[in-house]
């Protein structure tokens, strides 16, 4: 875990945090790179356009970057998921689903590299 919300300034730093994580992770040599973003899917509240988030998620082909939306106001997470690249975002309305989502991410990435 790179940063915990408890120690972050108020406001939404999803784009900056995602970009930073993707840039930093490739500085270390590794077989594969994963960045998993946990967000409340409240991007529109802060004026963040989904296309900007999508661009950052796919900015480095070496990095497998994904978003897990943990909560939603209405259908906001589902609407956001439809605008992001297929397979790059997941919705966990209950946090007990996060382990299965992570397993799905790692399995699909492994199978796509074969």
From TrEMBL:
<dbReference type="GO" id="GO:0005737">
    <property type="term" value="C:cytoplasm"/>
</dbReference>
<protein>
    <submittedName>
        <fullName>von Willebrand factor A domain containing 8</fullName>
    </submittedName>
</protein>
<dbReference type="InterPro" id="IPR039891">
    <property type="entry name" value="VWA8"/>
</dbReference>
């Amino acid at each position: 875990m790179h940063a915990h919300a408890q120690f972050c300034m108020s406001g939404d730093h999803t784009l900056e945090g995602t970009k930073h994580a993707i840039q930093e992770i490739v500085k270390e040599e590794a077989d594969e790179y994963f960045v998993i973003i946990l967000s409340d899917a409240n991007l529109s509240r802060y004026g963040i356009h989904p296309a900007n988030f999508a661009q950052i998620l796919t900015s480095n082909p070496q990095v497998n970057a994904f978003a897990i939306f943990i909560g939603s106001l209405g259908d906001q997470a589902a609407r956001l998921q439809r605008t992001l690249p297929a397979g790059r975002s997941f919705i966990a309305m209950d946090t007990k689903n996060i382990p299965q989502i992570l397993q799905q991410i790692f399995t699909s990435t492994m199978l796509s590299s074969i």
